[in-house]
Amino acid sequence: MGGRVRAGRLEGEVAVVTGSTSGLGKEIARQLALEGAAVLVTGRNDARGRSVVDDIVEAGGRAAFLAADLTDEEDRRALIEGVGAAFGRLTVLVNNAVLAGVVKDGPVADVGPEAWDAILAIDIGAVAALCRLAIPAMQRAGHGSIVNISSRTASLGTPGLAAYSAAKGALNALTRSITADYARSAIRCNTVQPGYILHDVRDAQLSGERLERVRGMHLTRLPTATDVAHAVVYLASSEAEVVSGIILPVDGGSTAVRGLTLG
Fold first, then answer.
1. What is the pLDDT of residues 107-140, one digit of tens each?
2. Per-residue pLDDT tens for 141-156?
3. How many distinct structural domains can be found in the chain?
4. Which is the most buried residue in 2, 71, 98, 202, by most CB within 10 A?
5. What kind and span of H or E run contains 187?
6. Is 63 inside any structural domain?
7. Is residue 263, in this structure, part of any structural domain at all?
8. What is the torsion angle, in degrees rounded to the nearest 10, for the CA atoms of residue 185, residue 228, residue 194 and residue 174?
9. 8 Å CB contact between 25 and 223
């Protein structure tokens, strides 16, 4: 897992992280656990999910795994009930899961109705449904933090990603709506909006010229999954008790300024 659990920032918190059997979600779950939260890992792959749990437990953390199909209402309900059964309550929900590589996105005129519906069903529909189920549990706990993982595509037009971009734009709007309705109930909702995330295996396959171009779009170094996870930890913690309704870019400044135009 790398590192040992350090009590403090999230001690006593209980989190669900969707899409946490690999990639960014796995790192978010790992960092939440390192800061003392109990974490329910969820996804469709049992072997990968249980491996994430084993890594967290080996490092001294608390975690459990529950498989779930986020398009299924009964699975969503079982997920929220399951975290209560495992850890007693729910105080943090990280909506990270997306529909990746299953159906083809593209320009809006090229995206068929089945693909459009499938992408929006996971990337915004399942998020809203989980929030609907999680908020009463957070109200019973006395407080809560919802962190939605969006994308730079919600702010900058990106060719060939019409459905994904639309879903992420809707996700940002949902964050503001939840804040308006529930902030006075001690339930906060914020969005972390990553851009390009450095991935050792994927980026090893990029040509030197392509990688340098990607780097040139950023004002700082390229962000990693750990950078994004650190932002989630902050928003989940009591340090962000008065922060709600924000869209927090974690993108090396790439949505603020066009890095390639500088210098």
1. 999 999 999 999 999 999 999 999 999 999 999 9
2. 999 999 999 998 888 8
3. 1
4. 98
5. strand 187-194
6. yes
7. no
8. -10
9. no
